[in-house]
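job 3f2a | input accepted
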Amino acid sequence: MKLVPYYRCSTQKQARSGLGLEGQEATVMRFAAAHAADVLKSYVEVETGKSAERPELAKAVAHARRAKATLVIAKLDRLARNVHFLSGLMEAGVKFVACDQPSANDLTIHILAAVAQDEAKRISERTKAALAAYKARGGKLGAALPECRNLTPDASRMGAEAAGRVAKQEADTAYTDLYPIMKELRDQGCSLRAIAKHLNDEGYETRRGCRWNHVQVRAVLNRYERR
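job 3f2a | predicted structure (227 res):
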């Protein structure tokens, strides 16, 4: 068995401290040892469970598919709390296993994911109700706080620059696994349209969840070759 581990934590602070990640890695390593499995490259995501925008998960799925490996996660809730997203992953044809539910079949995983989604919804509803009650008692939140008003021009500029750096970094790393495939096909003489067709036929999507076209292929090739 070959494994491609995927780890997720919800905040940058957790990522820096290792909180949560070390436990997930230890769980996956125990699973690998128990099954005498080879662990390939690991992928780490810093993202909330609600988001379906998971560039590192996309890389892990692509790696597992190409290597004919199994995507492994420590706990089912580390993958997603969204039934539709989880179902889409299963339909992609990539084998995966959750260490806390190693014998679960597709039906079991659907049921567990539905329960997790319902739990997340209830938590969200309780949080909104608590915040509404706090505001009704005169509490202030977010922009209503004096310290959150009227940012100086320098603070606004720094915030915009930071957001731009994050966006650029995400764009620079989104297709690190697909660029070698594109380059190899182009070196073999394939046109940009042929490369886009190959990616679509293999089930790859853009980071926005769209199908590939020749313009997007050219943009990725140009971005990585300018480095």
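job 3f2a | DSSP finds ten helices and five strands in the chain.
job 3f2a | closed
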